[in-house]
Design brief:
Chain A is mainly beta and 113 residues long. Chain A contains no helices and 11 strands. Classes of the chains: A mainly beta (113), B mainly beta (111). Chains A and B meet through strand 5, strand 9 and strand 10 of A and strand 4, strand 5 and strand 10 of B.
Chain lengths: 113, 111
């Protein structure tokens, strides 16, 4: 149980384009999901908390207009990186909360050219 | 500011030995602490959770201790195997369920 999927697993895009990443909890309902970013050899950094049916809350320093989060159902949250730039290249990981544990997706590698 | 330190960046041990990893934290009062395993290019996999009022937890060959006075958690892998080679992350949990992660310790188990 407690399986979380992410799609796509990797994506390459041109600078200025937008990219959408999906996070799904496959065998449980998650009212809360989290989005993280991880740069090489660094720790996971929490970007935002996604709550089903309400607006996401963002951590300090994370631009909410750049990283759009939608949590439209109890099993799906999406992260859209708008007008992506090379500095947005990173490993994006979501997690779904099954209190108090978080179960993580396999991650999405974003490369912006 | 809050700080989470995992003892070393890398740990190399012989198969069959016990690996001991340390997680120290400052300026933080976590409600619970979790340990995760992360393989290269993959998301973290949940291993163990220990609450602030618990001293020790075990799961198969894994053992976690939590000392809120010392602000430290120890993570042990007994009878280590090459398949245990990975990066291990400690994460401190708050009452709002947000996690703050350490940078991780990469364990390599030699056959």
């Amino acid at each position: 149980g407690a399986v979380v999927s992410q799609h796509p697993s990797w994506v390459i895009c041109k600078s200025g384009t937008s990219v959408k990443i999906e996070c799904r909890s496959l065998d449980f309902q998650a009212t809360t999901m989290f989005w993280y970013r991880q740069f090489p050899k660094q720790s996971l950094m929490l970007m935002a908390t996604s709550n089903e049916g309400s607006k996401a809350t963002y951590e300090q320093g994370v631009e909410k207009d750049k990283f759009l989060i939608n949590h439209a159902s109890l099993t799906l949250s999406t992260l859209t990186v708008t007008s992506a730039h090379p500095e947005d290249s990173s490993f994006y990981i979501c997690s779904a909360l099954q209190r108090p544990e978080q179960f993580f997706g396999p991650g999405t590698r974003l490369t912006v050219l | 500011s809050q700080k989470i330190e995992q003892n070393s960046e890398a740990l190399n041990i012989q198969e069959g030995k016990t690996a001991t990893l340390t997680c120290n934290y400052t300026n933080y009062s976590p409600a619970y602490l979790q340990w995760y395993r992360q393989d290269p290019g993959r998301g973290p996999v949940f291993l163990l959770l220990i609450r602030e009022n618990e001293k020790e937890k075990r799961k198969e060959r894994l053992k976690v201790t939590f000392d809120t006075t010392l602000k430290q958690s120890l993570f042990h892998i007994t009878a280590s195997q090459p398949a245990d080679s990975a990066t291990y992350l400690c994460a401190l949990g708050a009452n709002d369920y947000k996690l703050s992660f350490g940078a991780g310790t990469t364990v390599t188990v030699r056959a």
